């Protein structure tokens, strides 16, 4: 199984003429409430890829509909705590220029306790993976405990906090970053320098670097692979990275060869960018197989 210790957010989206100004009250005639958070998106991608995914996190105790939604998409929600803390959420204003202004409330996403982590990891076995992003608390604690149990750790340090990422990289088996995150992490402004610097600084680490419409690189001290992205008409790249991660980890758990793993993940994220939305844009494994057969 994959234990994804990740965020669950409700994204409240409002379309407006312009962003609300100080002292102003503005009515919006367009409102959408969508399930989001990198953690939840990656769990959905894992489930759609066919993986056995257990999401570990927390929501407010009255937000049972979120758990039902995740569970309908194939995510195991037994390890999601129901707390007396508001569910993590984002208030997103979208103006006419398609720019956004966002208030993020972390809420329950930062309410994980060491006891909850210990209980979860006590039931994991050595073939299991632990996946983390950077939208929840106790990251270092979870990684240390997971490593001590012999579990594999995958880390997608988004949003990037270079200080934290550097502290925890010794506990990580697979690092998944985009180009900007990789450069921020090493403190360089050149992608090749990051590709060179990461395996030197962390010899044990395997790195997956997604390169947007160019594709993806996978490298460690002795391997360097590149897989080109599929050429599609992109309309919305939201959740492309999350889709990539889900399909990639799922294929890795199926012990596929690395080139095959990357090709599948590229196909899944190529389909994702042709559709609007976040979790709703993530394809199923059968759609990915059909795409690859074309
Ligand atoms: P993030 O969204 O995390 O920044 P990327 O932009 O690197 O991640 O995208 C992740 C993956 O999605 C890429 O490795 C690629 O396979 C796929 N992808 C992203 N944008 C496109 C695109 N325009 N066309 C085809 N595939 C894309």
From TrEMBL:
Binding sites annotated in the UniProt record for ATP: 178, 210-215, 241-242
Task: Indicate the family of this protein.
Answer: Belongs to the carbohydrate kinase PfkB family. Ribokinase subfamily.
An example of a GO molecular function for this protein is: metal ion binding
Q: InterPro entries, per this entry?
A: PfkB_dom, Ribo/fructo_kinase, Ribokinase, Ribokinase-like
Enzyme Commission no = 2.7.1.15
Query: What HAMAP family does its record include?
Result: Ribokinase (MF_01987)
Q: Give binding positions for substrate.
A: 9-11, 37-41, 135, 242
Q: How does it assemble?
A: Homodimer.
Name the gene that codes for it. rbsK
This enzyme catalyses: D-ribose + ATP = D-ribose 5-phosphate + ADP + H(+)
Domain of life assignment:
Bacteria
Q: Where does K(+) bind?
A: 236, 238, 272, 275, 277
Task: State where it is primarily located.
Answer: cytoplasm
The free-text function statement in the UniProt record for this protein reads: Catalyzes the phosphorylation of ribose at O-5 in a reaction requiring ATP and magnesium. The resulting D-ribose-5-phosphate can then be used either for sythesis of nucleotides, histidine, and tryptophan, or as a component of the pentose phosphate pathway.
Q: Which cofactor does it need?
A: Mg(2+)
Pfam families in the cross-refs: PfkB (PF00294)
The name this protein carries in UniProt is Ribokinase
Pathway(s) this gene product operates in, as recorded in its UniProt entry: Carbohydrate metabolism; D-ribose degradation; D-ribose 5-phosphate from beta-D-ribopyranose: step 2/2
Q: Which residues form the Carbohydrate kinase PfkB domain?
A: 5-283
Active site at which residues? 242
Give the UniProt subcellular location, in the record's own words: Cytoplasm
Q: Please provide, in alphabetical order, the Gene Ontology terms of the cellular component aspect for this entry.
A: cytoplasm
Q: Which GO terms describe its biological process?
A: D-ribose catabolic process
Q: Which keywords accompany this UniProt record? A: ATP-binding, Carbohydrate metabolism, Cytoplasm, Kinase, Magnesium, Metal-binding, Nucleotide-binding, Potassium, Transferase
Paste the cofactor note.
Requires a divalent cation, most likely magnesium in vivo, as an electrophilic catalyst to aid phosphoryl group transfer. It is the chelate of the metal and the nucleotide that is the actual substrate.
């Amino acid at each position: 199984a994959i234990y994804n210790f990740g965020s669950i957010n409700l994204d409240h989206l409002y379309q407006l003429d312009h962003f609300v100004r100080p002292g102003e009250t503005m009515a919006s005639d367009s409102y959408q409430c969508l399930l989001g958070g990198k953690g939840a998106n990656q769990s959905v991608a894992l489930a759609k890829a066919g993986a056995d995914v257990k999401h570990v996190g927390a929501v407010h105790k009255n937000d049972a509909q979120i758990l039902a939604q995740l569970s309908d998409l194939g995510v195991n929600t037994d390890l999601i705590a129901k707390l007396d803390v508001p569910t993590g959420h984002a208030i997103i204003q979208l103006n006419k220029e398609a720019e956004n202004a966002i208030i993020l409330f972390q809420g329950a996403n930062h309410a994980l306790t060491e006891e909850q982590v210990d209980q979860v990891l006590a039931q994991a076995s050595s073939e299991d993976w632990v996946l983390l992003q950077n939208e929840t608390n106790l990251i270092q604690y979870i990684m240390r405990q997971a490593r001590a149990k012999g579990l594999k750790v995958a880390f997608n340090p988004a949003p990037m906090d270079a200080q934290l990422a550097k502290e925890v990289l010794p506990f990580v088996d697979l690092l998944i970053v985009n180009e900007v995150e990789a450069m921020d992490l090493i403190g360089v402004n050149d992608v090749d320098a990051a590709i060179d610097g990461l395996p030197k600084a962390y010899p044990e680490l395997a790195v997956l670097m997604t390169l947007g419409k160019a594709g993806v690189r996978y490298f460690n001290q002795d391997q360097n692979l590149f897989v080109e992205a599929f050429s599609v008409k992109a309309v919305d790249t939201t959740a492309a990275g999350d889709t990539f991660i889900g399909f990639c980890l799922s294929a890795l758990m199926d012990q596929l060869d690395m080139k095959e793993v990357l090709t599948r993940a590229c196909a899944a994220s190529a389909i994702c960018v042709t559709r609007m939305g976040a979790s709703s844009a993530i394809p199923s494994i059968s759609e990915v197989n059909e795409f690859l057969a074309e």
